[in-house]
Amino acid sequence: MTTPIQPNDILVKAEALRNGLSTGFRDEIVKSLYTEAESIARRAVKAASDKKYDFDQKVDRLVTSPLTGLPIMLLLLGLIIWLTVEGANVASDAIATVLFTLGDWGRALFESINAPWWITGLLWDGVYRGLAWVIAVMLPPMAIFFPAFTFMEDLGYLPRVAFNLDWMFKKAGAHGKQSLTMAMGFGCNAAGVVATRVIDSPRERLIAILTNNFVPCNGRFPTLIMLATVFVAASFPPALTSFIAAGTVVGVVLIGVGFTFLMSWLLSRTVLKGEASAFTLELPPYRRPNISRILYTSLIDRTIFVLWRAMQTAAPAGALIWILANVPLGDSNLAAAIASWLNPFGLLLGLDGVIILSYIIAIPANEIVVPTMMMMYMGAGMMVDGPSTNEAIRSLLVNGHGWTMLTAINLMLFALLHNPCGTTIITIYKETKSIKWAALSVVITLGTAFLVTFLTATVARLLGWV
Amino acid sequence: MNLMYWTILVIALALVILLPRVGLLALFKNWRATHEREQMEDALKHLIDREQSGRHASPESLGGTLDLSRAKVTRLIEAMETQGLIESRGAELHLTAAGERWALHVVRAHRLWERYLADEARMPLGQIHNEAHRREHNLTDAQLDALDAALGHPTRDPHGDFIPTREGALPKAEGMPLTAWQTDRPARIVHLEDEPAIAFEQILAAGLRLGQTIRILERTPQRLILSDGENEYRLAPTVAANVSVAALPESELLKREAVPLVELAHDQRAEIVVLDEAVQGFTRRRFLDLGLTPGTLIYPELQNFFGDPRAYRVRGTLIALRKDQAAQIWVKPV
Predict the structure, then answer these.
(1) How many Cβ pairs within 8 Å bridge chains A and B?
(2) Which residues does B313 contact at the CB level (< 8 Å), separation at least 6?
(3) Which domains does chain B have, with CATH numbers?
(4) Which ipTM value was assigned to this complex?
């Protein structure tokens, strides 16, 4: 009778055999696997014709040639963003109307049963309003952007974009596929961070994660558009207004892209030096998009996933915002007191205390920064939309709260460069499994935002522009 | 009021300085201990380096390598002698058994890190030494074992030097004396014998070094004439017997008949001959996963408008590779 083999014996045996292996044995294993697979494929697969292959080649020439490749790319990205911004406006208004009406009913119900005023306020004007606001502004753009983006992905077009742009990313020490995660970032930075899974090289993936926030997401676009229209474009003749506003937003986006490259370059040469790295990019054949799969991935995996995370952070933030606005302190409230305490720091950056406080308490989602700001400027007890016309917004901010052109421009820069929203930070943590990288993503963005706004403010003041 | 204010300030200050573990004083002590240990490890590495090349370290050579003043070197040597790591014999410094064990541990850490940085992080060879030097301290044997396993138990570092095993053994270099090697067959120098020292000095003076690829051009009873393709070297046979050589790795031989993939013209069909030895780790695994195995048909199909990267058709799929990677795949046009 033989004694059974112990697991440890196998390890010892393997250890002994390992020393006798040639260095290329892994290559040999893979080679034999491929040989076997090829012989099976030869027996089982019949290629009908080369028509599909020729068509793919023609399309590839078109989308990667210098003359047509770049215009096609910019056109498609522009089209998706335009569709998102335009389409979302209508849907957001509709959802907001429904949700806020429901909120009013809930409020009325609580009042009718004589619930204490602060319970009604905290629950309906704080938590519920925060949730409703986030859903109303986040859901429509994501529900349009993600399917459109996933459509391009399913078509097989996106890897060609990475292929076209890789030379730029290579110079910054990054991967061409980062262009895709950046494009995804226009939809939502948290989704952009998740999308970095397509980058199989650890170092380049970390670069893409840590710099994704320099691309303004859907939540920040309305802020940028509002500021560009109300402040920058207003100083030009009316005929040019929309053109100037669009140009300003594009300019801000380009600054963000510039910072992405700069930061990628810096990261790959400092903190991320020595992380594992490799580059390969598969260009799959073009496929007919599968609509039901597109809707599933974009709506369930991306939209609902991001929205759910945002709602988890929006609810407590809504409560906090309400508390700050409704706890009286002296003849004002807690929010105003903190804002005036933060004011010197805000002014140093060319902003003000209210803006800084809004960014602190509205960390769960960029969408609620402006409503929180407006709440404080207008002395309201809950998040509100600003005045309805551009002139009224201008007069509220400029005459009422001392805004200048510098405040508007620096707020745009701050909106572009500041720390990732709570949802994105959580996502970075979940994707990297590391508090260190999540913290670093905050440090580099916030550091850049402080530095840049401080410099522009100082320069503008020294030159006597404000 | 004023008194209380100052008392609180003084207590706070005292806490910041004196708090165990996180206080400034503790941090400083910790930093100094780490610094001292790293300096000792660097000294051990210098000693074992010298011993392996057949010479012995002296206080002067140590001071030169570590860039330390005379007084500091003396203090360092005293500290290491007290710990039983080294012994001075006259002007020479010798490693004790304990010192050698520790030195080999550091060498192992250094070379494994170099392997990691070259293979996984694809850092340029010129940069890996400094980065590995920064990382070689503070690793336990168990952590080194994990690194070793993760790298697939490499036997040599990217410079061709052997990596010590956990037990501290340096594998014996294979190879045969140069005098026994065939004329005109390319060979790689795998070992330079350091005893007797006089022969070793002559080998070094001739300009031969470890890892060099050479060929014997001419052989007479008086001397051997070698070439590395650029320079010629002359050695007396008695000296040449102290140089061990081995056959080039198979991949080096295969490369002679092939061209790098990056030089292939558009649509020029070719067969993969071999992946460069320099491609290891993560990148090699990716290449193999994508089916870039020897014998596979490949051709460039799509050019980026700036020339880099280029997409190649392999087994019916289109794979984009950057220039630096395509330069490491050797192919034969068909």
Answers:
(1) 113
(2) B298, B299, B300, B301
(3) 2-95 (1.10.10.10), 176-248 (2.30.30.90), 254-333 (2.30.30.90)
(4) 0.82
